[in-house]
TrEMBL record, chains A, B:
GO terms for molecular function: (2E,6E)-farnesyl diphosphate synthase activity; dimethylallyltranstransferase activity; geranylgeranyl diphosphate synthase activity; metal ion binding. PROSITE patterns: POLYPRENYL_SYNTHASE_1. InterPro entries: Isoprenoid_synthase_dom_sf, Polyprenyl_synt, Polyprenyl_synt_CS. One of its GO terms (biological process) is isoprenoid biosynthetic process. Residues 1-10 have a biased composition (Basic and acidic residues). It is an enzyme of class 2 (transferase). It comes from the Bacteria. It comes from Streptomyces caelestis. This is Geranylgeranyl diphosphate synthase type I.
Length: 388, 388
């Protein structure tokens, strides 16, 4: 969780949608339907909901990218170069690159929310807003990497390692400004409210990142579960919630529906973060070769770890001793087992399930028509790897 | 010029307006009226135009500060603390402070431009926009100090030295977001255009700061006068121009008048920067105790220095030798004299006068009524220290 706004750990190429593209009917939303515990192992082939999610993500990418390329192209030379590098569209020397610019989950949520409550017309009207949300996401990534001194992003050296810290800060500043300009120039009546909401979200993201860096300086035993949950909500939940809420605004949704969409995105975002933290300790069942225990080696205060620390169990005492003395001969499997024995894994998986249940309730409230809610449901299941 | 957006060198208390407050009639604008070379020595007492400028600055501060305190108060705790410290309203420990938060020249320009073309009603409507401009200015200062590693701002330790680099970056990010939210929540019909303009200005400020940091890595002989003028326009002129243009937007001004107001602010901003650079070498005639030659000791590529370097004179050759070997026994007076002999001082003062002449022409174009233009004229004279 040492990231400003967490990127998905699996940044590899999306599974090919195969023959399911466009043929997958809307699936019913409503009450949560468990098909096994969240984050359980899968066979690696896209299921029906995943197929729909992949299609929505690819479609969002295809619609938003031209807008992004257009506004990024309007930047002055040096800022443009850094931005295009960060998005994976240029190499550091300015030659074209075919790198992935992320999964477009946030733009896809904007568009799916607009479509759910306003149909294709609202969806089409929300493309600029979806691009603005993606710009804000990427602005936070640029600054996040500077603050956390992260050197790799989407399998490439981070922008600050290539262009220097000042230019990475400046490029992030410029991307935030571009996001706001995109919305300010949008004649849609929802644009001012969307701008205000996105600006509020930036403030929340900043507060979340502050909380994260502040926690890094404290011992794991000094951090409460409420604190770390609040931080994860601000860092990860806030922008997913805002994406859904902004889509709702473009569909002319009521205040109550917009609030429910925000809550849906937030809760799904928290569920995602919980699962992501589980994967950071016990590995991604969908991805071979993922180093298991990386977060433990870095002594991250991830959600399952803090849950284990605050469990009051004998295993918690043992974990505190293990965490206090990092060494190169760490037995990461043993630490992972200790977190598990202290209940950290079960807690995280149950929390994720609970959060998804709340997300589904909020979704059903905002979008009672199950068919209309299908896109948002598929995306939420995709990010939390629930689909099977 | 090592600052993102240059603050005024004289950040001390404003001269007391004395008996002139409110009694000074509007002064005629129009063609520039020279009363001696720009930046010439004065007797230290505020003259009539300075009295008017001081009144406008104090009035702007009084109107904008409540809005700023309100929006800064809405920030989450840690971000709020950093922002209030940066604005000089709190000590680092959160106790109240009575520090100066700057001269409010940019908000005063917004309000004066609105008043010049739209009267008191437009002026009152533009207060939120004026606060937004001030937030953007302060966001750039926070980030500027991080990038330039400056340790003092407004006579206090900079925010990053007190709260750390990550929190100073985050507080700056949050201030940019607050600025955009203020405008987005403003129901005035000019708000979207003002938001777009302010966002564009942020991009230009970023490009200017990039150019500045990039030039720092080059030798003074490798920098052209055009480059350094373009950089100063982006870093200093752009926000002063935007402030005037946004005021015009709130007055319902035509596109042509808004463009003329922008040009007025830009040119006045460049004149200010030229005079500020002259003061950075030869000292401020209005302020005893200002260390003369500070910019030379730091080997800054300020405008008079680049002019001297590119003059093709024998003194330029001598200057290149002096600049190449900084030492603690630098004879700064001798270097200053060499810049002067190479024509750097005359060039800067003539350029400043030319820029002010263009500024006055643009002002006369946008605001033909001399009485209505009086406030903007007084502010422009104040920042360039032309008033006597």
């Amino acid at each position: 969780m040492g990231e400003f706004l967490t990127e998905f750990r699996t940044e590899t190429t999306l599974p090919a949608p195969g023959g399911q593209r466009g043929t997958e009917p809307g699936r019913p939303a409503g009450a949560p339907k468990r098909r096994g515990p969240i984050g359980t192992q899968r066979d690696g082939r896209p299921g029906p909901a995943e197929g729909e999610a992949v299609m929505l993500l690819e479609r969002a990418r295809a619609e938003v990218d031209p807008v992004l390329r257009d506004v990024l192209g309007s930047l002055p030379g040096p800022m443009r170069r850094i931005a295009l590098y960060h998005f994976g569209w240029e190499q550091a020397d300015g030659t074209p690159a075919d790198g992935g610019s992320g999964k477009a989950i946030r733009p896809a949520l904007v568009l799916a929310a607009a479509a759910a409550l306003g149909g294709p017309e609202a969806r089409a009207a929300a493309v600029r807003a979806a691009a603005a949300v993606e710009l804000v996401h990427n602005f936070t990534l640029l600054h996040d990497d500077v603050m956390d001194r992260d050197t790799t992003r989407r399998h490439r050296p981070t922008a600050w390692t290539v262009f220097g810290v000042p230019d990475a800060i400046l490029a992030g500043d410029a991307l935030q400004a571009l996001a706001m300009r995109l919305l300010a120039e949008d004649p849609h009546p929802a644009a001012p409210a969307a701008t205000a909401r996105l600006a509020d979200c930036v403030v929340e993201l900043c507060a979340g990142q502050h909380a994260d860096t502040a926690m890094e300086r404290r011992g794991p035993g000094e951090v409460t579960l409420d604190e770390v949950l609040a931080m994860a909500e601000a860092k990860t939940g806030a922008l997913l919630g805002s994406a859904c809420a902004i889509g709702g605004l473009y569909a002319g949704a009521s205040d109550a529906d917009v609030a429910a969409l925000d809550a849906f995105g937030r809760e799904a975002g928290l569920a995602f973060q919980l699962i992501d933290d589980v994967i950071g300790i016990w590995g991604d069942p969908r991805r071979t070769g993922k180093p298991v225990g990386a977060d433990l080696a870095a002594r991250k205060k991830s959600l399952p770890v803090v849950a284990a620390f605050t469990s009051g169990t004998p295993a918690a005492v043992e974990l505190a001793e293990l965490y206090a003395r990092p060494s190169e001969e760490d037995d990461l499997d043993h630490i992972a087992l200790t977190v598990e024995r202290a209940g950290g894994r079960d807690w995280a998986q149950n929390q994720a399930a609970d959060r998804m249940a709340v997300a589904m309730q909020q979704l059903a409230r905002a979008v009672p028509d199950p068919e209309a809610a299908g896109g948002l449901l598929a995306l939420a299941e995709f990010v939390t790897r629930r689909s099977s």
